[in-house]
Amino acid sequence: MKFDTPATTNPIDQLKIIGKPTDRIDGPSKTAGTAPYAYERHDIVANPAHGYVVGSAIAKGRIASIDLTDAKAAAGVLAIVTAENAGKLAKGSLNTASLLGGPEIQHYHQAIAVVVAETFEQARSAAELIRVDYIRAEGAYDLAAAKNSAAKPATDEDPPDTAVGDFAGAFATAPVQFDATYTTPDQAHAMMEPHASMAAWDGDRLTVVTSNQMIAWGARDLATTLGLPRDRVRMISPFIGGGFGGKLFVRADVLLAALGARAAGRPVKVALTRPLIFNNTTHRPATIQRIRIGATRDGRITAIGHEGWSGDLPDGKPETAVNQTRLLYAGANRMTATRLAVLDLPEGNAMRAPGEASGMMALEIAVDEMAEKLGLDPIEFRILNDTQVDPEKPERKFSHRPLVECLRMGADRFGWSKRSAQPGRTRDGRWLTGIGAAAAFRNNVVQKSAARVRLDPRGVVTVETDMTDIGTGSYTIIAQTAAEMMGLPLNKVVVRLGDSTFPVSAGSGGQWGANSSTAGVYAACVKLREAVAQKLGFGSADVVFADGEVRSGNRSAPLAKAAGDSGIVAEDTIEFGDLDKKYQQSTFGAHFVEVGVDAATAEVRIRRMLAVCAAGRILNPKSARSQVIGAMTMGAGAALMEDLVIDERSGFFVNHDLAGYEVPVHADIPHQDVIFLDEVDPISSPMKAKGVGELGICGVGAAIANAIYNATGVRVRDYPITLDKLLDRMPAVG
Ligand code: MOS
C-alpha cells in the first residue's frame, strides 16, 4: 500500500481497541520470567559452549604479538578466535570500527579475542592467560582540544550547514544579543539486558538469537561481515531488555558467537560483561554547542545561530545537535553548522533521540537565558516566536504543530503562575525551590514496513513481522491494530515479532517504530479484509468487521468461517510517498519541572515533573505514558548525573559499570505526570499516529537546568549539573 495522500476515515477510527489504555500482552510472560531473552534460548540453540570476549587494553595502536599457548591448554577450552585465525572479515556497513580488532586497534576494549569453553567460568579464566604485547600510539581523546581540527562531516542525510538570510549582519545589529556555549558529556545507553547472542551453524547456514532493534539491518550486516549470502543468516530477537539505540546495529557479541561456534564446531553463547559494554559498544557522543540569538526589544527573534561540535572514530558520524534549531523558532536570519572531530574514543552513535536530546539540552537553556535578558516570561517568549511553517523553507507547513497549546496547558496544569520570576527567592525549609520549563521537539520519521497476517479456522489472526519490542509495547499496539481492523477482541490476535524470516518492518529506531510498523500491519489487514470479503462473496464496499463477524448489507458470517480449513494469508508493505517532504512532520511538547536545591550543600532533588505531548493519535495511552515517563527519567539522568568520564591519557571511559555510571533510581524521581493532547495527524500514516518514545527526553534536561536556576540564581551550562558546579556560587545562607 502506498501512502501518499492524507488519510481519510478508515477502520482504525472506530477506536474500539486502538486508543484505549491497554495492558501489555507480553506483560505476564515478562513479569513471570517466562519470556525468553537471547541468552536463554536453549530451545533454539541446544547445548551451547560459552564465549568470553577479551577487550583491548589500549585505545590506539597495534598488537605486536598475542600468545594463546597457556589459554589453549586451560581446562575446558574448545577454541580461541582472534583476528589472526578468524578468516577474512568484512566490515558491516553500520560499524565504524571492526568488531574483532587486531593487529590494528581502533579503541579501548575493542574485542581482540573470544575464548570458547565448556563453562563461562572456564572461558573467563582462560581469557586471563592470553598474553598480548601492544605497541601504543598517541590518540586524541579530548573534544575541546580537537575542536579546532573539526571539519564539516561528509553525510548524505542531514546537511551539516544551513543558512537563511544574513545571520551575521542581523545578529550584529540586534538590539538584544545573547551568545553562550554549552557542553554535554558522553553518555551510555546502560540498558538492563547486556548485548547477548547465541549462534549455531548448520553447514554454511547460521542461526543467531540475539538482542537487536533492527533485524533486517542486523542480518544483512552479519552476512556481509562473514562473507555469506544474505539468505544464509537467520536472526531472531523476539524479546529485548532495552536498547536505546545501543542495539541498532550488530555488535561484537553476535559476530564473536558466530565465529566462536564455527571454530568450536558447536553452538556458542556470548554475553558482553557489563564492564566491557561501555567501551566495547557505542555511546552518545559529547557535544560543544554555541548558540547565538538576536532579538528586538519586544522579544522577536531576528537572528538565531547554533553550531555543534562532536567527535567520533574515523568515518564516524556527528551528533546532529543543531537540527531542531532549524525548525523550532521563527527568525528571518539563521544559521546552523555541524562539525566533527576525529577522536579515538569508542564509537559514538545513536542514543535515544540522537541530535535533539543533546541539542535541546542547550537550546532550551539559551531560550530561558534570552527571555530573562529581554525581561520576558520564558513561556511567553517561546509563544511569541512560534512558527507554523518551516522557518528555513517557509512554503512548507508543519503537518500539525500545537507547541503553543502544549506550553499553555502545561503552564496551567503545573501552576506556572506561582513561579517567582526572580531566581533564588523561594524557600521551603532548607531547600531553595524553583520551577523551570522547556519546549520538547523531535522529528517524526516514517519508514517502509511490512507484515503478514493469517486468519486461521479458529478465527484467530496471527501477525508476523520482523518488528522488535525493546520494552516499548510494540506487541500490544500491533495486536490492537489487527484486532481493530479485523473486528476481533485482543485475545483473538497472536503477534510474532523479531525474526528475519518474517516480513521486513521499520524496526525500532528513531521513534518511527510504533507508527510505521502498525501502518504496515494496517496495510496487511486491508488485504486480509478484501480476501475475506471475496471468499464470503460479499461486496467489499460496505463490508463491516465487528464482534468476530463479517457483515455486508443484511448478510453476516463468522470471521472464522471465511478461513475455511486452510486459513487465509495476506501480506503487504506500507510505503510512504513524499508527504514528509511536502509537510514538516514533527512531534511537540512542553516539560515542566520543580526542584529543591539544598541551600547548604547544593544537592538537587527533583520534586515533580510534567510533560505535555502532542504526538498524533496515541495508540495505547498506557504504554505511551510509560515511554514518556521513562524518557523524562532518562532526561533527569542526563541533566543531573550521567557522565562517561574519560581518562585522557589512556583514552577510555573510566566509570564503565553501573556502580560508576550513575543513572536515576526511584528515589530520584518523586512524581511524574504526562498529558497527551488530543491530536490526530492524517498526514503521518493511516494510523494518524506519530512517535513519542524519544519526544519525552527532548527538552527535559533543560527544564531541570532552568528550574535549578530559578531556585538558586546559578546558571550551569555544562552538563551534568552536579553539586560541585553549583556550590561555590550558591546564594549566602541567611
Ligand atoms: Mo534510537 S537512538 O534510533 O534506538
CATH architecture of the largest domain: 2-Layer Sandwich
Which small molecules are bound?
dioxothiomolybdenum(VI) ion
Please identify the structural class as seen in this structure: alpha+beta
Q: How many structurally independent domains?
A: 3
- Looking at this structure, what is the CATH superfamily of the largest domain? Aldehyde oxidase/xanthine dehydrogenase, molybdopterin binding domain
Distance between the termini: 68 Å
Number of strands: 32
Description:
This protein is of the alpha+beta class and 734 residues long. The chain folds into three domains: 2-35 and 446-578, 2-Layer Sandwich (Aldehyde Oxidoreductase, domain 4), CATH 3.30.365.10; 45-138 and 189-280, Aldehyde oxidase/xanthine dehydrogenase, molybdopterin binding domain (Aldehyde Oxidoreductase, domain 4), CATH 3.30.365.10; 390-444 and 585-729, Aldehyde oxidase/xanthine dehydrogenase, molybdopterin binding domain (Aldehyde Oxidoreductase, domain 4). Helices cover 24% and strands 26% of the residues. It has 17 helices and 32 strands. The protein has a seven-stranded mixed beta sheet with strand order 4-6-2-13-10-11-12, with helices on both faces. A hairpin with a 4-residue loop joins β30 and β31. The longest helix has 24 residues, at 513-536. The chain is globular, with a radius of gyration of 27 Å. Bound molecules: dioxothiomolybdenum(VI) ion. Residues 213, 243-245, 248, 350-352, 354, 509-510 line the site of dioxothiomolybdenum(VI) ion (MOS).
Concise structural overview:
This protein is of the alpha+beta class and 734 residues long. Helices cover 24% and strands 26% of the residues. The protein has a seven-stranded mixed sheet with strand order 4-6-2-13-10-11-12, sandwiched between helices.
